[in-house]
């Protein structure tokens, strides 16, 4: 008998009977999108829960990134990481900006602040770091560089829902921060995203951008796009928010269990986390070193043969895809840490419904090597 499949992630789905009243309210209102009551309630609830002043909801994280770049009028060159999901750099190409890749820190796996200054040119207008796996960037160092060179900072915080550092919500750093609520994320609305704004004017402009630029029924004040979050997605977000603390508690337990079970396994390294105030345990990455016995890809295939679906987040690097590899900054020589990490990284399954017996099944494959 084949063992049940174990996926790298599964969305937390609240009981269906709790979702139905929200759907009935939407049906009764006859408002399915365009900033209805669910949208407004969800927006307020997120601000309160996340500890942010202003937030603009979007239909997905990629459109939210595009809108953030549009709001800040980003052009020219933008320094970013090659170690991320392709949406990070794709948003720059769509905006007509040029990604400039900088290597990552070997511990945090985030953009290395010590490498940023050398990449700045007269054409540089912004920095787009990523809080990889929800692990906070060195926001103080990045701010100091941005202030010195008068650069904008847009954080891709797709993994960082609910994460806090020394100053509170990680989302309050930079000129703008962008969230993703995709089904693979620790917090999901099926599809969705958001931009965290520093002030009401920025939020208003982003609200215009996501609704074709409409200020009112007869006035268009910006070259906008259709980026609105539907009422159905907002309702799922409200329901998810009720369970989020419970979700994170379970993920924390799974993280700790993995660490205990994998302690002492030769050739398996668990990257350190920053000592942030609040973690969300969004992913559980390991590095498969050369002394493990088999390669990362061989372990990946071995897991697959046992119906365990891991992910090589992030492999290949963004800089290795055809639309980027001709850039001078995409050279492997320029990105030695990111290149090495991408060939060793493996994200193990972690989600609230994962049982300890499932974790042991994953661990047994690793230990039996």
UniProtKB/TrEMBL annotation:
InterPro entries, alphabetized: DegT/StrS_aminotransferase (IPR000653), PyrdxlP-dep_Trfase (IPR015424), PyrdxlP-dep_Trfase_major (IPR015421)
TM spans (from-to): none
Gene Ontology biological process terms from the UniProt entry: polysaccharide biosynthetic process
Keyword entries, A-Z: Pyridoxal phosphate
Active-site residue list: 185
Signal peptide: none
Entry-annotated residues carrying N6-(pyridoxal phosphate)lysine: 185
One family name in Pfam for this protein: DegT_DnrJ_EryC1
GO MF, one annotated term: transaminase activity
UniProt similarity note: Belongs to the DegT/DnrJ/EryC1 family.
Name of this chain's protein: dTDP-4-amino-4,6-dideoxygalactose transaminase
Naturally occurring in which organism (per UniProt): Zhongshania antarctica
